[in-house]
Design goal:
The protein is of the alpha/beta class. It has 6 helices and 6 strands, in the order ββααβαβαββαα. Strands 1-3-2-4-6-5 form a 6-stranded mixed sheet, sandwiched between helices.
Length: 200
């Protein structure tokens, strides 16, 4: 990722630094994304914040009763998560939003360390195939593997050790603008996550 932001973001203080996870440390549900968006989390310093993917995700978390508000514009905007934690496989914005296997492997230890610290998490919602693969790799590194490897799909479910891993299409514009992912589809995955986490 470029070290300097484009002119319209010249005042962005957080630009091009690793982005940590965000949410309730007592969460029962962990939402795992691909990586910080170049002009979203990479700019604001909070996952899924300041971009349209975040608008979709936090809107859905709000409708599911897991967020205090439906928007996430910047750190310090008052957003709080309840029973949910948002993180990603890769912690820095990758070129063209396409992380290489080496970037995944460099960042994966953070997710491996994060999951046990979130001691109440029982459900992992993976946003997209890359996050699904990363979540399964993190589970395997923690001693929980499944063979054959569960296949990703929207609404896919897999029991992996102490976790129920749920798949959802990523709320990227290429999915939401085309109707591949609708609000109802994302809401259904989060409703299922609440049910599996014992929150329904």
């Amino acid at each position: 990722m470029a070290a300097e932001p484009p002119r319209r973001y010249s005042g962005a203080a957080y630009w091009a630094r690793p982005v940590p996870g965000f949410g309730d440390p007592g969460a029962a549900i962990a939402v795992v994304g691909l990586a910080p968006a170049a002009h979203g989390g990479n700019r604001t310093g909070r996952m899924f914040t300041g971009d349209r993917s975040g608008d979709w995700l936090y809107g859905a978390l709000y409708r599911a009763g897991l967020a205090s508000q439906p928007t996430s514009s910047e750190r310090g905007d008052g957003l709080r998560l309840r029973d949910a934690y948002v993180t990603a496989v890769v912690r820095c914005a990758p070129p063209a939003n396409r992380p290489l296997p080496a970037e995944r492997d460099n960042c994966l230890p953070y997710l491996v360390e994060e999951l046990p610290l979130l001691g109440r998490v029982r459900v992992i919602v993976a946003l997209g195939a890359f996050a699904w693969d990363g979540a399964l790799r993190a589970c395997a590194a923690l001693g929980h593997s499944r063979r054959p490897k569960p296949r990703f799909g929207h609404g896919a479910e897999a029991e992996v050790g102490p976790y129920a891993v749920l798949g959802s299409y990523h709320p990227s514009q290429q999915n939401t603008f085309t109707g591949r992912l609708t609000e109802a589809m994302l809401d259904a995955v989060l409703a299922r996550a609440r049910e599996l986490a014992g929150l329904a």
